[in-house]
């Protein structure tokens, strides 16, 4: 898969007193994009519950490049930056762009998979492997050994 992009909707509740998007909304947009990607690739939240696995985040960082206001149109994408070959650990990056491709923010996160019954990190099942295997990869993608 070359790209995965989603259009974002800015709601009144997403704004701060200065009239631009609150910082925490960016993280919600990242989660929305990741779950939309997984769902589009046959790994929905309900299927993860059945498989008794879920993603966990160790680190999440957003770098804000340009102010975003309510009337603007935005797209968010995702790309795999690095991963173990079994996708048990990974780094994903989102770019949020304004109209015309202007970069507004970059979210980078490191994560893994947890067994939701044992509450321990785990090697994910084949369904996770299949979904992450088709995730767009960054130009500088690297396997973690």
Automatic annotation (TrEMBL):
It comes from the Bacteria. The keyword Transcription does not apply. GO terms for molecular function: fatty acyl-CoA hydrolase activity. Keywords: Hydrolase. Pfam families: 4HBT_2 (PF13279). InterPro entries: 4-hydroxybenzoyl-CoA_TE, HotDog_dom_sf. PANTHER family: 4-HYDROXYBENZOYL-COA THIOESTERASE FAMILY MEMBER, NOVEL THIOESTERASE SUPERFAMILY DOMAIN AND SAPOSIN A-TYPE DOMAIN CONTAINING PROTEIN (0610012H03RIK). Belongs to the 4-hydroxybenzoyl-CoA thioesterase family. This is Thioesterase.
